[in-house]
Please model this.
Amino acid sequence: MTQEARTAAAGRKKSPPSASRSDGHFVATGPVVQHYQAAVQLLHQGKYEKAQAIELKERVQMYISTCQRQLQKAALTFLTPEEHYDFAVSQLNTGDYDDAREQFNSILTGHPGADYAFYGLAVLDAITGRVQECLNNLARAIELNPRNRLQARVDNDFQNMVDDPRFTELLYPEIP
Model:
């Protein structure tokens, strides 16, 4: 960052990464916003090359970070589908739902009969409020391995599904 940009950024009050406004909305703050504001200030001062350099630096850093994350994902190798499942569950447990879904689906691509991957998707769908998908995936998991029915009966991750009669019917089917 140039001295002028540093001076412009230093003159602003530092605040936490996000701050709430009186109308309830959140405003992004932090180093990225400060760099952007410095670039805008330089732009208004007619210092176009310096403003462009700040903006380009921020964008390049963002793209590099994104590429590094994607390369790390591609570098993951698993010896067994069960090991892959453990990783998917860890993603689920940390709240990385998109990556967890991607991992469960990846397991099913190579192993379409992996009941545990369908069960994992059902849990993910329950947590994220995708009711019909949860029912479909859980039904498939039970079809492939009936013990999944017993597991689902005691699994707290399905807590928001207990009032759905279709869920109850799936876990406690009528005996003919």
Summary: The first strand starts at residue 18 and ends at 20. Residues 1-21, 24-28 have pLDDT under 50 and may be disordered. The chain is about 65% helix and 5% strand.
